[in-house]
Amino acid sequence: MFLRCLVIIILLLAGGLPMRAQQRNSLTLANDKLILQIDKRSAKNYLDTILTRAGVNGDNISTKILKGDYSALTSKGWQLAENSRFKVRFNRALNINFSAPVVQQPFIITTNTVNSEGSPGYPADVLYGVNKFGLQTVRELPNGMTRFFVPGNLTAKRVYVSGSFNMWSLSKGIMLKTDSGWITDVKLKPGIYAYKFIINGNWTHDVNNKLTEHDGFNHVNSIYYRYNYTFRFKGFQKSAKVFVAGSFNKWNTNEIPLTRNNNGWQASMYLHDGTFLYRFMLDGRWITDPANKSKANDEKGLIASVINLGEMVNFKLKGYTNANKVCIAGSFNNWQPERIFLKKTDNLWQLPVIIPQGNYGYKYIVDGKWITDPANTCYVNEGGETNSFIAVKPNYTFKLLGYLNAQSVRVAGSFNNWNPDQYTMGRKGDEWILNIKLPVGKTRYKFVVDGNWILDPGNKQWESNEFDTGNSVIWIDPETSTKTI
Q: CA–CA separation, 125 vs 190, rounded Å?
């Protein structure tokens, strides 16, 4: 088996654990075998991610393994190779017949991982991004797929693309040989991605891609932005140069040039959800976007065009017919009052607002008086203040059936440092519900019903904790941003 290690996805554990502790549990590749090594002294939550990478998951499996029950592994084709006092090791043959040279040296390809603001192999989200290729090897297709291309290498036996979009898989991303190189198509959402190619077992960054990021060791990953926005500037085709700059790139005037076309100029890029100010630089002269009527002053008091990217949320407040003005403020606008005013129509105050995806607290302000949303029974406690809660583009819904006589139902977990007072669920029919945006990866949680902590009766996946009371467990898939169990 020719596949080499994926050292780029070794991520340091949160809290700065020593390197020795991080490498006690490992998944390695050598001599046509995957090798899974487990330290029996490990806390069970350290095993969950590596077991998932090894293709072993289910109800409380890590606890069973630490107690000496290896049936979940053996049923997946893993063979027990060593079982000492503190260590147990399993091997599994790779069922692929490759004729490329065998890699003799074992390499760590994954250990425990955490989601953080940028880690080796998993780039942090960014406000914007523009690709820079010598020869363009990644491009968007009309059908919405993203095509990766490796030019040449026609004598290679197998070529893969592996990256943050497929959890650095060693089996996904196989590329098809053509007369000019190798190709494969991947479905990507807008955003930033790290990737490498695997050519005859050798990991290499994309030499035609000028954007790289350190992989956490002594190499680099290639970086690709899946675009979601195009700046267009009509006319002025006799101009020599046109650039776009804005609050997203700290008004760097020479970074993003527009390309001349039949109708004028344009430049595509990735832009994160949010509100941004921008202007065009036309032959050294600032000009606002003539096609965009939305304007605002920048920090220097100069007029700039405005972009709003996000989801449309229609805020509505019934009644208050005698009020003179109603506005809304929340964490989405840094709680600034007197900025977003609702419009009155009959017995209703309402306004559609574009908000970036995320979790937010908010309140209405009726003639200077702050109130929670009477139509929303989901709340968030922020700094001791109870606010109405909304999730824009949520990726999970907590649900608890029954408990109809409960005074309050809350949810707490690893996503909020187990704060039992932060998120209050709303009653809908015979269920308590909270839509929320959770981080990608593993989330442990419990419901808090009138102060009593309980497991989620609708979720069979759970794990033990230090109190021997258990925690419910869900996974948010990075490829689809949905729950997996």
A: 11
Alpha carbon 238 to its chain's center:
42
Query: Which element (helix H / strand E) includes 21?
Result: helix 19-22
Q: What is the pLDDT of residues 140-196, one digit of tens each?
A: 999 999 999 999 999 999 999 998 888 787 778 899 999 999 999 999 989 899 999
CA 214 – CA 223 distance, rounded (Å): 10
CATH number for the region 229-309 comes to 2.60.40.10
Sheet of 79-83, strand order: 79-83, 87-93, 33-39, 26-30, 107-110
Between CA 447 and CA 450 the distance in angstroms is 10
Q: What pLDDT is recorded for position 16?
A: 31
Ordered by start, the domain boundaries in the chain are 7-110, 128-226, 229-309, 310-391, 394-485
Report the pLDDT value the prediction gives residue 9, as an integer from 0 to 100. Answer: 32
Q: Matching CATH topology for 128-226 and 394-485? A: yes
Cα 185 to Cα 144: distance, rounded to the nearest angstrom: 10
CATH 3.60.20.10 matches 128-226? no
Q: What is the pLDDT of residue 14?
A: 29
- The conformational region for residue 134 under phi > 0 = left, psi -120 to 50 = alpha, else beta, is alpha
Query: Residue 110: what pLDDT?
Result: 32
- What pLDDT, on the 0 to 100 scale, is given for residue 374? 96
Task: Report which secondary-structure segment, H or E, holds 19.
Answer: helix 19-22
Contact assessment for residue 295 and residue 288, using Cβ atoms and an 8 Å cutoff: yes
The span from the CA of 271 to the CA of 294, in Å, is: 18
Q: Is 287 helix (H, G, I), strand (E, B) or coil?
A: strand
User: Can you point out the beta strands (E) in 289-376?
Assistant: 295-297, 303-309, 311-318, 326-330, 340-341, 343-345, 348-355, 358-366, 369-371
Low-confidence ranges of the chain (pLDDT < 50): 1-23, 95-117, 480-485
Q: Which CATH class is domain 394-485?
A: mainly beta
pTM of the complete model: 0.62
